[in-house]
User: Fold this.
Amino acid sequence: MRLKNSEYGRRSNGDLRIEFVDQDLSSYSGLELFRRYFRVIRLNSRIRQAFREHRLKGDYGLVSFILVFVALWLTGGRRLRHIGFLSDDPLVKRLCGLARVPSDRSASRWLRQFTNDSLQALVRLNSEIVTDKLKALDLPRLTLDFDGSVLPCGHTVGWAFRGYNPHKRYAPSYYPLLCHIAQTGHFLQVKNRPGNVHDSKGALGVIRSCVEQLRSTLVGVKLNDRSRSGNRDRALK
Assistant:
């Protein structure tokens, strides 16, 4: 049975009361703090603005789907099928603004619409949110950590190949290159790569992009990069 569009969403006008008491609490009670933070940074409107030129269709809407994936990550989910464990949790529904959480199949169908262009829109949105926070902190120096991380995948996952996986040598994997800010822990950029590429593949482009972005938005801030050998900081020229 297909539901009406009005039956998918649920609006939350007020804040939940937070108390520190000696009793059993919801495992996901911290999601309420994230919901308030997302409202402060106007995340919903920024998502709509970032994807205004991308026609992503779905019964639940663009913002709702992205918030479902955020909730899945915040609660420790690693696969789309784990959405089923969150479907009845009231705080997950509240974070996503939904009366009914989409199934993993609905989420999978929605993700199939993503192209490289729409993925880059999401990457730019993340970078803008991070740089806005760095501006507010007004730090005199920032250290950029660049490193790869192996993500094992199933055998049916596209673009995943057997490669540099020290723990599961025969498992297909991704090998994304990450850039995060050492002082705050923010991830500035992520470049996904198949698991059979060398660690340096595409690294120069990511480093140049991150440095140019920070220099154009954070004028006067000194930038260092941290090498993997010895964890030494080096000034970027």
Observations:
- Residues 138-235 form one domain.
